[in-house]
Amino acid sequence: MEIVNQVSLKDKNTFGIDVQAASYTELTDTASLPALAAYDEKRVLGGGSNILCTGPVSGLVIANKIKGIRLVQEDEQAVWLEVASGEVWHDLVLYAIERGWYGIENLALIPGTVGAAPIQNIGAYGVEVRDTIAWVQYFDWNDASFDTLSNEACRFGYRDSIFKQELKNRVFITSVCFRLPRKSTVNTSYGAIEEELRLAGVSEPGPADVAAAVIRIRSSKLPDPKVIGNAGSFFKNPVISLQQYLDLKKEHHDMPSYTVDESHVKIPAGWLIERCGWKGYRKDDYGVHAKQALVLVNYGKAEGAQIWQLSGDIVRSVQEQFGIELEREVQVW
């Protein structure tokens, strides 16, 4: 394992921000983790699709390159797969679809690695990854030990988990075990999927059909990071009380919402941002994407600090107009 000093992270983060890492290494096996525990300041880099670098990165950046997919258990109903945390998430989705397994097809084309999936509890089009996770294995930097958490112990919430709370910056996720049904029904509850399937002439969709529809939808709305630097959705969809929603609905009759429970609803952050006039905004080399207001972009030479300041301006304008505080999804380095 080689540790290199002063490495550019420009091609290692999807925003394409050109900053230097003080030290950098690529991790290909879990056996090397105890040796890295001695470093006081460590940052784990997966696909680089959920970070915004606002300046030179101090300490050691550990690029997760641990690979492997192992069939742990199977029966007539499902398969259990242990997947190394450095595997590309979308590649896992395709792997499951090729074998006719259900559960993660709605999460197609989400960028990043498998190790990041439980941290964020990634979700899209009516599905969250927590619905398929059996357990998560990790390495604890503090006591240099390996351990396992069950699904329940991970305390998954909306774009949240124990890995973003008590265990934040304390553990390195080494693998995730997924339980994927052999037979199930696909989730087409989001209207966009149903419409896409209708246009494709698919009346009895399977996992591959749903994934193909999701890929077409995402590709039409979200910019390719290889063309325009971005980290996908920059903000979470806020959850507000039903009463606050009803009060806002009196003034904003077309405000969309999704039921969370009897007393809370989720409001699309993109709709709020667009209503505040930010969609398509551009200043110098940074701005808000013209097709999706949730996506902040780097047109070439933007600095991370500029994008961060823009996100703050957006948060303030939504707060002022709607009384709703947006929360950023992207992690700041």
Largest sheet: 5 strands, antiparallel
Number of structurally distinct domains: 3
Over all CA atoms, what is the radius of gyration? Answer: 20 Å
Count all strands and give the number. Answer: 20
CATH class of the largest domain: Alpha Beta
The helical percent reads 10-25%
Number of helices: 8
Strand order of the largest sheet: 6-7-12-10-11
Proper CATH architecture of the largest domain = 2-Layer Sandwich
Chain-averaged pLDDT:
96
Structural class: alpha+beta
Flag low-confidence runs.
none
**C-alpha geometry:** globular
**Beta strand %:** 25-35%
Could you describe the 3D structure shown?
A hairpin with a 2-residue loop joins strand 8 (123-124) and strand 9 (127-128). The protein folds into three domains: 3-64, Uridine Diphospho-n-acetylenolpyruvylglucosamine Reductase, domain 2, CATH 3.30.43.10; 69-181, Uridine Diphospho-n-acetylenolpyruvylglucosamine Reductase, domain 3; 229-332, Uridine Diphospho-n-acetylenolpyruvylglucosamine Reductase, domain 1. It has a five-stranded antiparallel beta sheet with strand order 6-7-12-10-11, with no helix packed on it. The protein has a four-stranded mixed beta sheet with strand order 1-2-5-3, with no helix packed on it. It has helices at residues 33-36, 89-98, 116-120, 191-199, 207-221, 242-251, 269-275, 304-322; strands at residues 3-8, 20-27, 42-45, 51-52, 57-64, 69-74, 78-84, 123-124, 127-128, 133-140, 145-150, 171-181, 229-230, 239-241, 258-261, 264-266, 282-283, 286-288, 296-298, 331-332. It is an alpha+beta fold and 333 residues long.
